[in-house]
Structure formats: C-alpha cells, structure tokens
Amino acid sequence: MKNLIYLLGLVLICIACKTKNPEKDFQACKVAEDAYNAFSDKYEQETATGALTPEVQAIYDNKSDSLFENAKAAYADFFKNNINTAFAQNIFSESKWTRRLNSGQLELVVQAVTDKAFKETDVYKNATARLASMKNTLSGNPYTNIISKDPDGNTVELANYVGKGKYVLLDFWASWCPDCRKEMPALVDLYATYKDKNFEIVGYSMDKDKDAWTKGIKDLNITWYQMSDCDFWNSQGAKLYAVQFIPLTVLINPEGIIIERGLDMDTLKEKLAALLK
Questions:
Q1: Residue 30 lies in a domain
Q2: Which of 96, 217, 241, 275 is most buried, by the most CB atoms less than 10 A from its CB?
Q3: One domain, residues 128 and 158
Q4: DSSP string covering the chain
Q5: Are 156 and 51 members of one domain?
C-alpha cells in the first residue's frame, strides 16, 4: 500500500510539472518587450539630438533589430506553448506582437491550436487568413493584385503597374506613421535616382482620413502612384499582403514575381543598385 501511495504521489508530481502556467511563461515576453521598449525610447532620444554618427546609427539599428526579434521570438514561444489556455488566447487576441510574428512563427502557433471553441473565433480565423496571405506573398511567389482608389477617387489596380517590364516597389505607409515620414525623404531620393531606369513605386496608404492622406502626399513630396482604401488596418491591401507594421516594402520583378519583402532602406538601396546598373 505504501508503495502504491508513493507511486501515485510521483504521478501527481509529474502531472503538476507538466501543468501549464501561462502567467509565469508570459513573464519572458514582458522582459523581452520591456528591453526593446526601453532601448527604443533611448534610441529616439539620441536620434532627436542629431548627434549620432552613421557608424553609431548602424550599431543602434542592429541592437534595435536584435531586441525586436528577441521579443518576437518570446511571444512566438509563449503562444505556441500556451495557445490552448484562455490566458494566452486573450493575449493573442489583444497584443500587437501577434501581428508581428513572421509566417514560420505564426504557422507553429496555428498548428498548436487544439481548442475547438477557439478555432471557431474570428481571432483564430483571421490569424489563419493572415498566415495564408503571408505565405502567398513570400519571395518567389507571383504578386497579388490590389484593387483600390487613387487620390482622385478613381478605381486603380496594382496590375496597372506590375508586369509591365519594370521593377516595382510596393510601399505600404501612412501619413500618421512617424517611421514612414522619417524614411520618406530617402525614398524620394531613391525614386529620383531610378525612376528613369526601369523602376516604379506604387504607394499604398494605411490612412483612415483621405484629407490626411492627400496632405501627406503633398507634404512629403511623393510623386509616384498612390492608392488607398482609407480603412486603416482593415484595408484590403493590408490584408492581402499581411501587413504587420509600416513602413513595409515589397519589391517585385518585371515579370510580377516577388523578389523580397520587408527591405530596410539600406538593403533596398543595395538591391536596386545591383538590379538597375
């Protein structure tokens, strides 16, 4: 009898060890996110002084990217290991980091879902739809057409510009986005350099207000084609390309095949310099 009680005790201990503790697991996410946010605040303060050299700027960029990826990986692991708990499902439904997961990370989370009730929610269905869009717009796939409106209210399609013998940069941005406004002068310069060399840009705005969008076009000296639904994150273009953050660029070759998405400005410059010699 004593042996039986001892064995039962061991079983209960093992079960307890395997019992998920999502609240505890979530602390790793908070630690990684706090580290990223703290560095981002410092980065913005240092940038505002205008004293950063290009070399220091590059170091800061790399550090920021590293902390961002660490936080994203922490959330991906948390969701994958706890997604069948109510606690993790609530975080998955509300956190901005859900939209920041890459296709591989999100696929592992979706595959881990066994909760039948959660599978019936809009949150889960939207996640699976976003995953499909992410996979469809990876490098090597044909571009996905977008039908939207130009600033004059006319119906316009991405197909009007892609597959016409030029490299096309699809640029997701918004007038309310600080990072978009920050990098726009560099994109304006890039367009001036390559617009007569088999290159075009099509901007897709995530603005909510048409007047703000058109004012942003004027204020930022944007001269390339533009389209927008003025529907924020619910915009069809954003859904079709699984836009998780902006600015986001998608480079498409003359045949309409996606070369790469998510290029930072330095990488984009290098890529175009090689392609458009």
A1: yes
A2: 241
A3: no
A4: -HHHHHHHHHHHHHHHHHS--HHHHHHHHHHHHHHHHHHHHHHHHHHHHT---HHHHHHHHHHHHHHHHHHHHHHHHHHHHHTTSHHHHHHHHH-GGGTT--HHHHHHHHHH---HHHHTSHHHHHHHHHHHHHHHTSTTSBP---EEE-TTS-EEEGGGTTTSSSEEEEEEE-TT-HHHHHHHHHHHHHHHHHTTTTEEEEEEE--S-HHHHHHHHHHTT--SEEEE-S-GGG-HHHHHTT--SSSEEEEE-TTSBEEEES--HHHHHHHHHHH--
A5: no
Q: What is the pTM of this model?
A: 0.77
Do 123 and 195 sit in the same domain of this protein?
no
State the total domains in the chain.
2
In terms of Cβ atoms closer than 10 Å to its own Cβ (0-12, 13-18, 19+), residue 46 is middle
User: Model confidence over 182-238: pLDDT tens digits?
Assistant: 999 999 999 999 999 999 999 999 999 999 999 999 999 999 999 999 999 999 999
Give the alpha-carbon dihedral of 133, 139, 144, 147, to 10 degrees: 100
pLDDT tens-digit profile of 109-165? 999 999 999 999 999 999 999 999 999 999 999 999 999 999 999 999 999 999 999
User: Cα–Cα distances in Å, from 3 out to 6, 8, 9, 12, 148?
Assistant: 5, 9, 10, 14, 72
- 110 shares its domain with 220: no
Residue 9 counted as domain residue: no
121 shares a domain with 187: no
User: Which domain covers residue 215, as residue numbers?
Assistant: 147-275
